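REVIEWER CHECKLIST
Item 1: Sequence provided? yes
Item 2: Single chain? yes
Item 3: Sequence as submitted:
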Amino acid sequence: MSAIPSVSRRSFLKAGSAAVGAAWTAGFAFAAEGSDPYGGFKMGLQSYSLRGYEVETALEHTRTLGLKFWEAYPKHLPLSTVPAEVTKQKEMLAKYSVTLLAYGVIHFDTDETAARRMFDFAHAIGLTSISANPKKEAATFDLLDKLVDEYKIPIAIHNHGPKADYDKISDVEEWTKDRHPLIGACVDTGHFLRSDENPVDAIERLGKRVFGCHLKDVRSVAGDGDNPAKKIMTVLGEGDLDVAGCLRALKKHGYDRCLSLEYEENAQNPLSDIETCLAHVRKAVQELA
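Item 4: Structure as written out by the authors:
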C-alpha cells in the first residue's frame, strides 16, 4: 500500500491542487531558509527526466525546482577524458550550483579500455557512483572488481524492467554476492514494480550495496475484455509505490548518495509533473519524522 493515497490524476489536480501548491511553496521556503525539506537525503534528478531540454536549460530548470544534485544522462554530459572538456563541464555545473553525483546508465563488458575511460571520467568529474548495466558474465565482473578497488567508485547495477538482464532482485543479489563491496545496485523503484517486485524489499535485501536509487512510480491498470492488465508510468505518489516505505528503508541502511527522481513521461513539458512528484517526496519525508 502506498503511504500517500493513490488517486486519479484528474481528481488529484481538482481536489488537491491547493494542498500540493502549499507543499511546493513550503519546499521552496525551506530551501530559501536553508533548512532541508528532504530529510537529509541528497534529493536530485536523473537528468533523463529533462531530456527534452538542452543541458543548460535542464540545469536551470533543476535549480528552479529547488534541487541541487544530478545523476546525468549521457546525452546531457557526454563522457570525456579530455581535461579541458571535463573542466568546462564542471564549470557549467558550478554555474548552476548543481553537484553531479552519479551518471548512467552505462554498459560494461570485458573491454578494459572502454571501462577505464568511464572510470577516468568518473574520477575527473567527481562521481560517487556509476549506474550500470554490466554484461552478465564472470569476466566482466572480474574486471569491475579490479576497477572499483582501484578507483574507489561504486558500480550500481540498474534494473530495467521485465525481461531485462537484472529485472529481479535475485538477479542483482546473484551477481553481486562474493564480489567487491563496491559492486552493488541502483534500485529503480518503477522498474521493479513493473517486474512484480517490491522496491522496499529490494532496498532491504540489497542493504549496504545500494549505491543509487531512481525514484519512479507505476500504476496498475486492470484488464478489460480484450485489453490485458498492464502497468503504466505515472507521477510519483499516484501509483503503486510505497514512497515513505522506500525512504524509510534507505534511511535505515544509511543511504547517503544521490536520490534521483526519474520521471519518464511528458518529455517536452514535464516540469509541473516533476513538481508534483517532489511534493509527494516531501510529504513522505514528513511521515518519517
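Item 5: Key structural point noted by reviewer: Confidence is low (pLDDT under 50) at residues 1-33.
Item 6: Recommendation: ____
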